[in-house]
Design brief:
- There is one protein chain.
- By secondary structure, the protein is mainly alpha-helical.
- The protein has a domain of about 100 residues.
- The chain contains seven helices and no strands.
- The radius of gyration is 19 Å and the shape is globular.
């Protein structure tokens, strides 16, 4: 990536960082729109693959943006993406914390908190849908996605069980020629 492309990456991710209501994962639909649909820097499949890799790595969810930067522009992209996704949101959070401390228990603040919860949930649901669309390249992948979602939503067990079952199913399906 050229220097101007790194600047564009910074501006896009800085804007996305301000949408991370509910965490970095909630901002992924906008990141996908920016990277896949608008800039055409990456395919939906590569985007979903990068997200999947980031989810199995230890550390915070925001690491997905660092990995996207790495995939787009190597080490320079990783640094630019990481700074762009962290700096604006951190500065906004700092300013908001100061304002909230001064507001105390104002009625408008309680209403704002109640309004932000469904917004965060909606953004995360959109993220799941967009990632599934990019990752589900066939009937097997769609079945694994639906089964994993149902398991995590309906079972009290750890999501690691869904991951283990999905990995085992992929190995078996590959050996049987379904993949």
């Amino acid at each position: 990536m050229k220097d101007h492309a790194l600047a564009e990456l910074f501006l896009r991710f800085a804007g996305v960082s301000l949408l991370a209501v509910g965490g970095a994962t909630a901002a992924l639909p906008e990141a996908q729109r920016q990277i896949v649909t608008q800039a055409h820097w990456m395919s939906a499949e590569k985007f979903a693959e990068t997200f999947a890799i980031a989810q199995v790595l230890p550390g915070p969810n925001v690491i997905v943006f660092s990995l996207l930067g790495w995939r787009l522009a190597g080490f320079a992209g990783l640094v630019v993406a990481t700074v762009a996704i962290l700096a604006p949101a951190s500065l906004l959070a700092f300013a908001a914390a100061r304002a909230l401390r001064r507001a105390g228990e104002a009625p408008w603040l309680a209403r704002l908190k109640r309004a932000l919860t469904p917004l965060a949930v909606g953004l995360m649901a959109a993220n799941g849908y967009l990632l599934a669309r990019g990752a589900d390249s066939g009937p097997f992948a769609a079945l694994v996605t639906l089964a994993s979602a149902a398991f995590v939503a309906l079972s009290p067990r750890s999501p690691l069980w869904a991951m283990a079952f999905s990995a085992a199913a992929a190995v078996v399906a590959g050996r049987l020629g379904f993949l």
